Sequence to fold (474 residues):
Amino acid sequence: MNTLFKTLGRLAAASALISFSACADDDGSSAPNTNDAATNSADLPSQVKCKGDICEIAAPATNPIAKDLTLTADKKWLLKGGVLIGDDKTKTVLTIEAGTTVYGETSTKAFVAIRRHSQIMAVGTRDKPIVFTSSQPVGDRARGDWGGVVINGNATINGCDAAKSAAGCEAEGEGGTGKYGGADDKDNSGVIKYVRVEFAGHPITEDNELNGVALQGVGSGTTIEHLQIHMAADDGIEFFGGTASFKYVLTTGVSDDNLDWTDGWRGKGQFFVAQQYEDAGDNGIEADNNGDANDATPRSNPMLENLTLIGVETSSKSDMGLLLREGTGASITNAVVIGWNDACLDIDHKATYDNAMQGGKMTGGLVIKNSVFACKAPYETDDEKDKAGNKKKDPWSLKDFIEKHNTGNEVGDAKTLLEKPFETTSPDFRPVKGSKAASGGLKAADSFFTPVTFRGAVDPADDWTKGWTTSARK
Fold:
């Protein structure tokens, strides 16, 4: 592995075309062939430059790739700066073969953004996952080494007036990632299967951040299955409006929120695991509707089943398992929420409370059922403050909301629910046999969801997280 780094370092110093000095597969594969002169096949867009088995891709907003591009597993692909796929008008397809590794250049905080009307077709396998990772050597990689993966779609978002909303709101993505949003909730931005995104995310400013994976106005025609976001410097996966859905998503070691949504996300999700590490993090889920207009429509209202949210009870960086705020709605079923330092659940802002329950009766806008909570404090109470800095009293009891008004919820013991949820090098997220997580699963009334009998994200008999994911810290 070190030989590979040295070889690429010498290549970088000798060639202006190939500028990265430290790319390597985790398996320590042999150094690339560097004998060929710099070439650019007729099949490749002009923004791609190759030498031997190393190819650079530089495609800023002023020169986006508007020609179909296939990244093959026999080459190493380096993203330089913002790489934009598509011209935001016509269809361009980025295809990535199973087993391909794509490196994000650290010095330019590279990212790749799939623009509206275009698609990513990244279909890996359990044996040959597609990996987006840092250009730094194995052992020197860190959160935020590069920007991450962004997909922009044409689905509806909130945040504009009603007249404009009928034609479709649009917004500008954070970090210069392009426009997103429209009026097509069935929009198809492609397929992501068996993909890892590692050491990404880049907080540019407090309100301008690149995440591990950002889905901006992405539609329900998009397929997302078996995706890991590992060691991201900001959020793991964030939905900005739209209707995209997912199955089998794992976030590990991210430094902010694991799953974040805002601006009217109305997708579905099943089998989501969030595992926080002790050194960094925030919430398991941070859920918003719209920060400027809490009741904006379309309101955020995803349907989620089989969640496992794992905090670090001894870390002050481990906040809430579920933070629901700014008017969001949601239907959450079969969750296991354990180990969060502040609390398992917190609800903030009047619009969120009103969307959940009014006059002592459930409205149906926010429902949490058949879930298990096991934290030092199951519920965060009276934590909001008014403009004068005085503590505000919650309008109703979270304990009553979860344990009386909703159905099938329980408070449990984190030590008895899952096999090895707090182990970070070789975790086991399966339910302990006979535990409250091993049974009690309830299927929602929607054909998207796989019928289950367990709670949490991992089947006791089939651990979908094994064989293609990573726990490497560097």
Observations:
- The chain has five helices and 35 strands.
- The mean pLDDT is 90.
- The first strand starts at residue 48 and ends at 51.
